[in-house]
């Protein structure tokens, strides 16, 4: 359906007069009358009746008008979003991706970005510990994928998934005093791990501190140690897992600057919320 027809009917309903509506639309009265007849010829019931010289909506006309307003609002919102995108002139975005989320980013998020925004260059930045706020405030990154238990009032946090740090081990070794493979030092996950170990009532010796959590999982599958990893990574490994005492939960989030995000940033956040974490954060 041509949205101009919707605008014609809305204008007639507002003016309650075909001649005034035609003047407002810069059409001849006969041209506007033809448009109305064309709609009714498509099988629609009459949209207007004449009463005391005015064109008044029928019940069918009221339903049509409500639908027309909704459709035109959607069209207007889409046009505004496209206008904002053109005005923003975004050719390059920077995404902060902590090591935990790099497999997810490169295997799922980046391919979607390349397909959806082929003209936008995308750069991934690995923030150092404590850098996320400064990078966002200095416009060095546009958003960050981040694991945290803390909040900063200057930033906006969009929740993705709650997770838990657990010890993962071969089922046959449950209860054995195994050393731990911990995340590498100076990483966001290690910061959480240090906090978790500080809170826990038991702390085993450190076996290794691999950069890649897949290495920690491999060591645990070999029976060399237990791995302190997110519970979401245990699924499908054949490992058993145990909560710390007390359990240590944290939130996987998107972090952006406060205020109204640009349309492309809003689209990215919406997509990651809907689809990016559908199967959890996989190493």
From TrEMBL:
It comes from the Bacteria. Transmembrane segments: none annotated. One of its GO terms (cellular component) is cytosol. PROSITE patterns: HTH_LYSR (PS50931). Keywords: DNA-binding, Transcription, Transcription regulation. Residues 1-58 form the HTH lysR-type domain. One of its GO terms (molecular function) is DNA binding. Coiled coil: none annotated. Belongs to the LysR transcriptional regulatory family. PANTHER family: HTH-TYPE TRANSCRIPTIONAL REGULATOR YBHD. This is Transcriptional regulator. The gene is cynR_7.
């Amino acid at each position: 359906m041509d949205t101009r027809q919707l605008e014609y009917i809305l204008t007639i309903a507002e003016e309650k007069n075909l001649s005034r509506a035609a003047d407002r639309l810069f059409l001849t009265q006969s041209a506007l009358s033809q448009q109305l007849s064309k709609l009714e010829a498509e099988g629609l019931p009459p949209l207007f009746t004449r009463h005391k010289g005015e064109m008044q909506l029928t019940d069918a006309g009221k339903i049509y008008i409500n639908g027309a307003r909704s459709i035109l609002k959607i069209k207007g919102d889409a046009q505004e979003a496209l206008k904002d995108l053109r005005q923003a002139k975004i050719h390059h975005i920077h995404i902060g991706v902590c090591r935990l989320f790099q497999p997810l980013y490169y295997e799922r998020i980046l391919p979607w970005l390349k397909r959806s925004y082929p003209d936008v260059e995308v750069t991934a930045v690995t923030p150092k510990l404590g850098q996320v706020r400064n990078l966002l405030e200095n416009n060095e990154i546009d958003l960050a994928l981040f694991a945290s238990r803390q909040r900063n009032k200057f930033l906006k946090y969009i929740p993705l998934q709650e997770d838990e740090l657990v010890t993962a081990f071969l089922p046959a070794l449950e209860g054995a005093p195994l050393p731990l493979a911990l995340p590498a030092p100076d990483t966001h996950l290690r910061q959480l791990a240090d906090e978790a170990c500080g809170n826990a009532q038991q702390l085993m010796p450190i076996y290794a501190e691999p950069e890649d959590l897949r290495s920690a999982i491999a060591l645990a599958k070999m029976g060399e140690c237990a791995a302190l990893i997110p519970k979401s990574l245990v699924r499908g490994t054949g490992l058993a897992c145990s909560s710390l005492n007390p359990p240590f939960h944290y939130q996987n989030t998107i972090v952006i600057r406060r205020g109204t995000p640009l349309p492309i940033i809003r689209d990215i956040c919406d997509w990651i919320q809907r689809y990016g974490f559908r199967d959890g954060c996989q190493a």
